[in-house]
Amino acid sequence: MAKKNTPSVSPSHFLGVVVFSLCFFVPKSVLGVKKELRFRKNGEFKILQVADMHYADGKTTSCLNVFPNQMPTCSDLNTTAFVERMIQAEKPDFVVFTGDNIFGVHATDAAKSLSAAFQPAIASNIPWAAILGNHDQQSTLSREGVMKHIVGLKNTLSQVNPAEVHIIDGFGNYNLEIGGVKGSRFENKSALNLYFLDSGDYSTVPAIHGYGWIKPSQQLWFQRTSAKLRRAYMRQPEAQRGPAPGLVYFHIPLPEFASFDSSNFTGVRQEGISSASVNSGFFTTMVEAGDVKGVFTGHDHLNDFCGELTGIQLCYAGGFGYHAYGKAGWSRRARVVMASLEKTEQGGWGAVKSIKTWKRLDDEHLTTVDGQVLWSKSHAGKCLLNNP
């Protein structure tokens, strides 16, 4: 989302590409074998969210809203370096890019810019996925063309749209299942479900102005997918009493993000909630499904809070990219989410016990802030110390 001239600070310091071999199995080969995700042997699964990179043309693209003394050396390469630093520091099992991956208006060649923007994830050999924002399609590729290019990149689990659905709005609606620990009784169950949706770009209805929204066809797909996953989780073997927790990722925040004030969220709210001007009811759809524990968006770069509403945590990641509006002196940032499994009486790993989150700032020390428990079997929203 490009708005007023006001983002973040602190250029990144390390530009080396980092390569990791992490906790997934069945590597994606040239033959197209699907790479599957599962919890590590220590019972953890960590997700790095990168929101609003706004990548354009690399080193020739200047930064926005940094201090004057940073301008001569600050470019898209600082965004790249930040992704690399985050991968090196957190060693995530999965990376999610939640839209406005490129700033299409300033990207000369969309395919080239997309490939460069995702290069740190590609080079790390970590599985990753992306969804679209409202600026990705403003260059030389259509919205569908952007998603098709993303799907063709190495190590991605992104999908253009679900194969079983013939009519659905948008591009980039899909889900991914996170299997239990290899060798555990949950090995063949999805202990954590991820949903990705295209929240659109701008309204195509003449009487409605502003940003796009999640349409009924997408909500129907979500309802059916959630129901299918709930049934699978609650039947033998290892039948569970309730659904596996779900996390939902899209770009434009829902109107419900405006429900909070400083007394009931963790993080900061420094600008208005730039949701669609209509409420399409997707929040209610998620509440009715009963499995969603967290929603993660971007779009509003100066907001990075999490607030709980009707049992669902609504979270911003905070602005990440340097060619994006922000505020000088307020560091670019990324959100990390970690799900942890419970130990069984037999000493193995069972269902998800808790979901925690924190953010890292692009400063000298990649400072960790706002650690909190998003959900657990016993309580939600409990604040942690600054370090997770």
Separation, N- and C-terminal Cα atoms: 30 Å
**Major pleated sheet:** 8 strands, mixed
- Secondary-structure element series: EEEHEHHEHEEHEHEEEEEE
Q: What is the number of helices?
A: 6
**Main sheet: strand order:** 1-2-6-7-8-9-11-10
Low-confidence stretches: 4-33
> If you compute it from the alpha carbons, what radius of gyration comes out, rounded to the nearest whole angstrom?
19 Å
- Summarize model confidence as the mean pLDDT: 90
Beta-strand level of the residues, as a percent range?
15-25%
The helix-and-strand class reads: alpha/beta
SS elements, strand count = 14
Approximate shape: globular
Share in helix: 10-25%
Helices and strands in order:
Blueprint lengths: L23 E2 L10 E3 L5 E7 L25 H15 L3 E5 L11 H8 L1 H6 L3 E4 L11 H9 L22 E6 L10 E7 L19 H18 L12 E4 L32 H8 L2 E6 L8 E4 L2 E5 L16 E11 L5 E13 L6 E9 L12
Parallel strand pairs: 2-6, 3-4, 4-5, 7-8, 8-9, 9-11
Antiparallel strand pairs: 1-2, 3-12, 6-7, 10-11, 12-13, 13-14
Helix pairs in contact: 5-6
Task: Give descriptors for this structure.
388 residues; eight-stranded mixed beta sheet; 6 helices
Give a summary of the structure in a few sentences.
With 388 residues, the chain is of the alpha/beta class. The chain has 6 helices and 14 strands.
